[in-house]
């Protein structure tokens, strides 16, 4: 058999060991183009739909993710107004299954332990919002990756707290604290071979074994943070059974957990019990194989913890009390028509006012990047709205909003001032700026114009018009 260029020979041999002659089909499929996907993402409008202007880019719906679509071949949509506005998230179709497996329930306390750059967190936040909301904490151990996580979480308006900790530090702080935990584990990434040449290049024959040790270590800590009866969703984007079925087998053999059935997703296959000591229940976990389904390689298992693993539940720490700051309350009233209760329980760090999403999980020992979504910056006695706050509410909830067309939005995202339209509420010093019903950020009233408050660090002159990109799709098809 001829291997596709730069697929490691040792990987082919390992797959031949597990799959026998079927390995030929898998390796051949790795020469195909990867499947790209996109899903609806705006958490503030959880029942909304993708804007019509995206229609030329969308192929079939993703069978296992009600919000997902395959993308037609063509240019990336990452530098478009609607992407910057958080209306959609570019995500591999197979990866969408993880939040669907998590199935957030109303009012749950959920931890995404390996969350960066935020694909699963942001989808979990959307699904939770649809059910009336949950308390969501997203963590990643790596400082640079956690910043990307914060940017994505803010872009789509997911109201979660973000920590930057190791699993063992969190386990010590939060025993039996969560109703559900996602471990989308660091892995050898074999499912990403088709998509990312760097992953193929970095892969080593001992990678599955090394990652298995790390995955067990992360899971050990994750389980201590689950309440009895809580759910653990374990997922990887790799193919090797060492990191998938055999990790699940290890969990079943060492912890009071049981596997739960997942929805009946077409194109996904049962995990292989013959790779897990013939434990029949392992088949309840699922795999997407690149040669058998429309997506990149992925593995998902959902387990329930039957008895607690940690000795005792955590000690509760103090929660933020609702604001008694008259200046803050007055300012909020000038900004929004109806103040969300979460915006009155704040946590102030340096000059930034955050909605407190950590509640009694807050502990001084933890590295917290964001205790919740940033709402405003305090400058002396005045407040300036943080652009992330615009994403937390649907259009119509700020006292003043200007809806702009794509051309004006491209200029706004590049940092230009806007012309002030007539008819704005003159009492409101700040107004939200929206495009196609999705907030982009804020502007401040000035004589005859609106000064641009879109953060300098996010401004870009690379944003392209969807109409121009749709032309490229048409010519490539
Ligand atoms: C597969 S990625 C997560 C992708 C993410 N869930 C998403 O959907 O965008 C695995 C993550 O695990 C993190 N990680 C690596 N080593 C870790 C460790 N020892 N403990 C916790 N997380 C770790 C990495 O920084 C990486 O962001």
Automatic annotation (TrEMBL):
Residue numbers binding S-adenosyl-L-methionine: 114-120, 140, 168, 184
Superkingdom as given in the UniProt entry: Bacteria
GO MF, one example: methyltransferase activity
Biological processes annotated in GO: methylation
Catalytic machinery residues: 237 (nucleophile)
InterPro entries: Methyltr_RsmF_N, MeTrfase_RsmB-F_NOP2_cat, MeTrfase_RsmB-F_NOP2_dom, Nol1_Nop2_Fmu_2, RCMT, SAM-dependent_MTases_sf
One Pfam family, short name: Methyltr_RsmF_N
PROSITE patterns per record: SAM_MT_RSMB_NOP
Keywords annotated in UniProt: Cytoplasm, Methyltransferase, RNA-binding, S-adenosyl-L-methionine, Transferase
Keyword Nucleotide-binding: no
Signal peptide limits: none
Keyword rRNA-binding set for record: no
Domain SAM-dependent MTase RsmB/NOP-type: 15-306
Family: Belongs to the class I-like SAM-binding methyltransferase superfamily. RsmB/NOP family.
Name the record gives this protein: RNA methyltransferase
Organism: Alicyclobacillus mali (ex Roth et al. 2021)
Lineage: Bacteria, Bacillati, Bacillota, Bacilli, Bacillales
């Amino acid at each position: 058999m001829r291997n596709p260029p730069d697929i490691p020979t040792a990987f082919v041999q390992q797959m031949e060991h597990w799959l026998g002659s079927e390995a030929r089909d898998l390796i051949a499929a790795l020469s195909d183009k990867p499947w790209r996907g996109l899903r609806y993402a705006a958490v503030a409008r959880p029942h909304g739909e993708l804007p019509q202007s995206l229609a030329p880019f969308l192929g079939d719906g993703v069978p296992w993710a009600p919000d997902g679509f395959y993308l037609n071949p063509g240019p990336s949509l990452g530098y478009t107004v609607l992407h910057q506005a958080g209306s959609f998230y570019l995500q591999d179709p197979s990866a969408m299954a993880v939040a669907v497996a998590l199935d957030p329930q109303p009012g749950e306390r959920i931890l995404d332990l390996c969350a960066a750059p935020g694909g699963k967190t942001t989808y979990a936040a959307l699904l939770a919002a649809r059910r009336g909301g949950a308390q969501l904490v997203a963590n990643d151990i790596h400082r640079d990756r956690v910043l990307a996580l914060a940017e994505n979480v803010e872009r789509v308006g997911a109201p979660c707290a973000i920590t930057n900790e190791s699993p063992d530090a969190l386990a010590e702080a939060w025993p039996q604290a969560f109703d559900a935990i996602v471990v989308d584990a660091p892995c050898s990434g074999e499912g990403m071979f088709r998509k990312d040449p760097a992953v193929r290049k970095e892969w080593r024959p001992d990678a599955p074994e090394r990652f298995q040790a790390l995955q067990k270590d992360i899971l050990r800590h994750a389980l201590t943070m689950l309440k009895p009866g809580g759910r653990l969703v374990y997922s990887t984007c790799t193919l090797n059974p060492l990191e998938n079925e055999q990790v699940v087998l290890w969990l079943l053999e060492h912890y009071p957990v049981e596997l739960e059935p997942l929805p009946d997703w077409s194109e996904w296959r049962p995990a292989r019990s013959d790779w897990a000591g013939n434990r029949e229940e392992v088949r309840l976990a699922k795999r997407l194989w690149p040669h058998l389904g429309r997506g990149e390689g992925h593995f998902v298992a959902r387990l329930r913890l039957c008895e607690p693993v940690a000795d005792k539940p955590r000690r509760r720490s103090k929660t933020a009390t609702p604001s008694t700051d008259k200046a803050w309350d007055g300012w909020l009233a000038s900004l929004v028509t109806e103040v969300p209760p979460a915006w009155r329980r704040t946590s102030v760090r340096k000059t930034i006012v955050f909605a407190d999403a950590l509640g009694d999980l807050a502990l001084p020992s933890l590295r917290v990047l964001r205790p919740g979504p940033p709402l405003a910056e305090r400058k002396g006695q005045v407040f300036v709205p943080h652009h992330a706050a615009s994403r937390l509410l649907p259009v119509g909830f700020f006292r003043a909003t200007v809806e702009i067309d794509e051309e004006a939005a491209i200029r706004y995202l590049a940092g230009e001032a806007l012309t002030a339209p007539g008819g704005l509420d003159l009492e409101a010093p700040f107004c939200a700026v929206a495009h196609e019903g999705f907030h982009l950020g804020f502007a401040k009233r000035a004589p005859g114009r609106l000064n641009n408050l879109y953060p300098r660090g996010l401004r870009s002159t690379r944003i392209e018009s969807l109409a121009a990109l749709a032309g490229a799709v048409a010519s490539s098809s």
